[in-house]
Amino acid sequence: MLETLSKVFTDNPLIVSFAVVGAAMYISYVISDRFTKGRIHGSAIAIIIGLMLAYFGGITTGGEKGLSDVSIFAGIGLMGGGMLRDFAIVATAFGASFDEIKKAGVRGVVSLFIGVVLSFVVGVGIALAFGYTDAVSLTTIGAGTATYIVGPVTGAAIGATSEVITISIAAGLVKAILTMVGTPFVAKYIGLNNPRTAMVYGGLMGTTSGVAGGLAATDPKLVPYGAVTATFYTGLGCLMGPSVLFLMTKAVFG
Amino acid sequence: MVIFGVALLAICMLSGVFLGELLGLSLGIEANVGGVGIAMLMLVLIVDHLKKRGKLSQAAQDGLGFWSAMYIPIVIAMSASQNVAGALDGGPLAIVAGVAAVAISWMVVPILSTSKREEVFDGALDENHLTGGEEINVRDIK
């Protein structure tokens, strides 16, 4: 009986994920309405529940893909994986206004460059404080602080140790997760309520998953504007990390 | 037909990601440079063009709107498949670096987003209703 049920689940992974996510969202919206009077957005609660489930999945299976490493929930990884995530992000552009994107275009590009350099410098500073002094490790950790893809790409290009690369990925993950959870709570303090600020936000934070999740829980209207800049960030980071940023770090720290 | 909207979306995404890969290759880096962003810009422009000519049927718009509305559930599935345990296992350096980067970036947002001549937010979100899907749209999801 239980075996049959488990077979049905593992045979239809994506369908299971629709049911599970739907149920989790329903519970989240009920919590949002009843206990916070709508002050904490249902999606924000759902994302936090998602992250807690991911942690649970990670510690029980020792895998890297959160809850989706648990075999009956494998579909969560498919539904929340890169392919469908990017497809849905592109789809949000259906509701976006090109005029708004154009108006904030220059500022979005500026925020991309500032965002990459800022996160990088912060990462390098923290790595220094933790006792790293060589340019390769500093650059890799700084790059990982930009996003968890820029870190390993940069580290591999300049020959960092696997230990340092692991730290850089973890730093990027922390950034993504904190952006997902924190965005709705800081939104009103940083004026994140219009397309222009959303584009700057995407450029500064850069983590596509973080921005995508954070803005969804803040105001879904803002998602396309934040996503349109954020999706350029990782590419820019991978471009600047092993080149300009590495050379600058090397010049300063030898 | 609904599939026309979905296919349009798929074609935009594939073209954008392809261009992003080419851009990455031409810059000599192992990453997709803004593929999804390029796809979004393409979709915005094409939808705008088709709508002005009345060539985007309601069914096709529903196809686009469905995926747009699926965005939040997909993001929640994404959050459930993050390597949270790995992030916490990264040790204090990774956690401090990640937290500091986010906190400092947050502080810079207002500085970069407000200009000297204090542009007033001009009801752009209302404008969006003209270009967005009327019935099914991500913004209608609470």
UniProtKB/TrEMBL annotation, chain A:
Instruction: State whether keyword Cytoplasm applies.
Output: no
InterPro entries in the record, alphabetically? Mal/Na_symporter_MadM, Mal/Na_symporter_MadM_N
**Residues covered by the Malonate/sodium symporter MadM subunit N-terminal domain:** 6-253
| The organism's place on the tree of life at top rank | Bacteria
User: Any idea which GO molecular function terms this record carries?
Assistant: sodium:malonate symporter activity
Transmembrane domains' residue ranges? 12-31, 43-60, 72-96, 108-130, 164-186, 198-217, 223-248
Q: Which residues form a coiled coil?
A: none
Annotated keywords? Membrane, Transmembrane, Transmembrane helix
Q: Which NCBIfam families does its entry note?
A: malonate_madM
Q: What is this protein called?
A: Malonate transporter MadM
- What organism is the protein native to? Siminovitchia terrae (Bacillus terrae)
Task: Identify the coding gene.
Answer: madM
UniProtKB/TrEMBL annotation, chain B:
Q: Which Pfam families match?
A: MadL (PF03817)
**What keywords does the record list, in alphabetical order?**
Membrane, Transmembrane, Transmembrane helix
Q: Does the keyword Transmembrane helix apply?
A: yes
Q: Which domain of life is it from?
A: Bacteria
Q: What stretches pass through the bilayer?
A: 29-47, 59-80, 92-112
Q: Which InterPro entries match?
A: Maln_transptMadL
- Which is a Gene Ontology cellular component entry for this protein? membrane
Name of the protein described by the UniProt record: Malonate transporter MadL
What is the source species?
Answer: Siminovitchia terrae
